[in-house]
Amino acid sequence: MLNIVIFGAPGSGKGTQSARIVEMYGINHISTGDVLRAEIKAGTELGRTAKGYIDQGQLLPDELIIDILASTLDSFKESKGVIFDGFPRTIAQAEALKKMLAERSQEVSVMLDLDVPEEELMTRLIKRGQESGRADDNEETIKKRLVVYHSQTSPLIDWYKNEGKYQHIQGVGTMEDIFAEISEVINKI
Questions:
Q1: Which of 47, 99, 171, 184 fits a disulfide with 39 by CB distance 3.0 to 4.6 angstroms?
Q2: 48 assigned to active site
Q3: Which among 89, 124, 143, 144 is annotated as catalytic?
Q4: What Rg value do the Cα atoms of the chain yield, rounded?
C-alpha cells in the first residue's frame, strides 16, 4: 500500500499535485473537508455527529475525524493506497493516523512537504482570489491562514522527520518539474 500524507501551505499546489499522484499511481484521495461534507450530505451517523460540532462552531474531536477517515479508507475496495490531504494537522492526529493504519497492517509511506516561499504563496493566492472570486483569498486573510499553517505544521514536520517519513519537495517551478521531484521520491518507496 502506498499511503501518502501531503503537506503544504494554502496555495502550495497540494490539490494539483494530489490529482497528478492519484492519476499516476492509481491511489485514492482523501481530503478531510470533502469527506466531512460527503458524510454530512449522506446523513450518516458520523455525518450527523460531525454536523452537530460544526453547527456549534466547534472543531471536531480527533477520534471522530479518525473514525470518519477509517470508514472512508475501509470503503475503498482493492485500493493501492491513499493520499491524505488536510490531515493530520496536529501531532495527536498523526499518532492517531499511525495507530489507525497499523490496525489495518499499513503505515504512512511518506510525508511530502510542498515548500513554497511566503511571497510566492501570497502572489498565487491573491491571483486565485481574483480569478475565482474566493473571498478568503485576500492579503489579510491569507496572512492569518499562513500563520496558523506554520504554527500547526512545524511540530508535525519534526514528528515525521523522527518517523523517517519526511520528504522536502521544492514547490516552486513548473507543475511538471514539481511532479517529477514527487515521482522520484515515490518511485523509491
A1: 47
A2: no
A3: 89
A4: 17
The active-site residue, picked from 127, 134, 143, 144, is 134
- Cis geometry, peptide bond prior to residue 61 (ω within 30 degrees of 0): no
Q: How far, in Å, CA of 164 to CA of 185, rounded? A: 13
Specify the pTM: 0.88
Contact 92, 158 (CB under 8 A): no
How far apart are the C-alpha atoms of 78 and 26, rounded to whole Å? 11
Q: Which CATH number fits domain 2-187: 3.40.630.10, 3.40.50.300, 3.40.190.10, 2.60.40.10?
A: 3.40.50.300
Count of residues in the chain: 189
User: Is 124 part of the annotated catalytic residue set?
Assistant: no
Q: Please tell me which residue in 20, 51, 128, 161 is annotated as part of the active site.
A: 128
Q: What are phi and psi of 85, to 5 degrees?
A: -120, 115
In single-letter form, the type of residue at position 102 comes to: A
CB–CB of 160/107 below 8 Å?
no
The confidence band for 154, taking pLDDT boundaries of 50, 70 and 90, is confident
37 a catalytic residue: no
Rounded Cα–Cα distance for residues 49 and 169 (Å): 37
